[in-house]
Amino acid sequence: MALITDERGGVLVDAGQSPAHAREIRAALAATGLPEPCWLVYTHHHWDHVWGACAWPGVEIVGHVAGESLLRAEAARPWSHRYLREQVRTEPRLGPSFRARALAMETFDDFAVLPPTRTFTDEMELPTGVRLRHVGGRHAPDSTAVLVPDSGVMLLGDCWYPPPAHLREPDDGPDLALVRQLLDDAYGWYVSSHSEPMTLAGARAALA
Fold first, then answer.
1. Per the confidence metrics, is the pTM higher than 0.90?
2. Containing structural domain, residue 34
3. Any idea where the Metallo-beta-lactamase domain is (predicted)?
4. d(Cα 105, Cα 107) in Å, to the nearest integer?
């Protein structure tokens, strides 16, 4: 997750993995005096990036068009701890993901998966100057990079990671070719969702 904010409004990147997680982030923002975001951007549709959205009232949710139908299908599932257990019994490869979801959710009362309310195809610029770029990749078809030109920061989400564990083949690995395509002299920092931030020089050295 990340928050990009100035006098034009705040952009929240990803919603958190659960409503409880989102409420913790909201409390932290309030404690520091930062305003509530106006826009919530999904880097992609996976649960640990979107399940907190229902705890961010009043924001416009922006995501790539490829994720909209996927999230509508997710929204239609009868989510509960019992449902998670039943799905793992039917398909054991779902175990790591679905057990993590069960641990993240104390209750499914008042929970909802929210598809984006505004979609884009290739690129989009928000009123704050934050730019969204569809990059795709094997991890998720709707993977989106969030570019912050004023700060020279590019938020990558999970775009270069391998496919989720239950879809992964033995030869699947990080998509380094995608990273090479994204590196840009105009951006000095690259931030992935589950990795340490890297400078442009550090990213190039790691790829070499």
1. yes
2. 2-80+109-207
3. 1-194
4. 5
Phi then psi for residue 22, to 5 deg, are: -60, -40
Query: How does pLDDT run along the chain (208 residues), one tens digit per residue?
Result: 899 999 999 999 999 999 999 999 999 999 999 989 999 999 999 999 999 999 999 999 999 999 999 999 999 999 999 999 999 999 999 999 999 999 999 999 999 999 999 999 999 999 999 999 999 999 999 999 999 999 999 999 999 999 999 999 999 999 999 999 999 999 999 999 999 999 999 999 999 9
CATH number at residue 149: 3.60.15.10
Residue 175 lies in a domain: yes
Count of structural domains within the chain? 1
In a domain, 114, yes or no: yes
